[in-house]
Design brief:
Layout: H1 6-21, H2 28-38, H3 45-56, H4 58-68, H5 79-94, H6 100-114, H7 119-137
Length: 145
């Protein structure tokens, strides 16, 4: 990483994901470049990998959210909760060096900091359900708890 802490990088990725929620139809590459220039986002591999990785795997990630949110379609979730969960699930699926428990903890911290206080329990429940499903399927190698 570029000397930036992972938590700071996560906050930047979250802000990019959240911003993208309001720019329907625009290319994610353009959104990233414009945001990187306007907000002076540092060159960081994790930020790029996570931001683009969420969109490359959005169908799979959203399917896991829907399955684990017991009747709540991803479209009904707040843009912020959806962005937080997408980032955490991306990490659980594709960032092998980050334990799932850390991804979930960080998502809860982001929820506490930026989202409605009532969202914390819901986000935690959905992410733990996703984690349990992934462990059951043996789908990722970062299930240390």
């Amino acid at each position: 990483m570029s000397g930036m802490k992972r938590r700071e990088a996560r906050e930047i990725v979250l802000s990019l994901l959240f911003e993208t929620e309001f720019k329907d139809g625009e290319q994610i590459e353009e959104i990233y470049e414009l945001s990187a220039d306007n907000r002076e986002i540092p060159e960081d591999e994790y930020i790029k990998r996570a931001y683009f990785g969420v969109f490359e795997n959005k169908e799979k990630i959203d399917a896991l959210i829907e399955k684990s949110s017991h009747g709540w379609r991803t479209a009904r979730l707040t843009k912020l909760s959806r962005s937080i969960m997408r980032l955490a699930i991306y990490e659980m699926l594709f960032e092998e060096k980050i334990p799932s428990s850390v991804s979930i903890n960080e998502a809860i911290e982001l929820t506490k900091k930026y989202d409605d206080p009532k969202a914390k329990g819901f986000v935690n429940g959905v992410l733990n359900s996703v984690k349990n499903e992934l462990e059951g399927e043996g789908e990722n190698g970062n299930n240390e708890c």
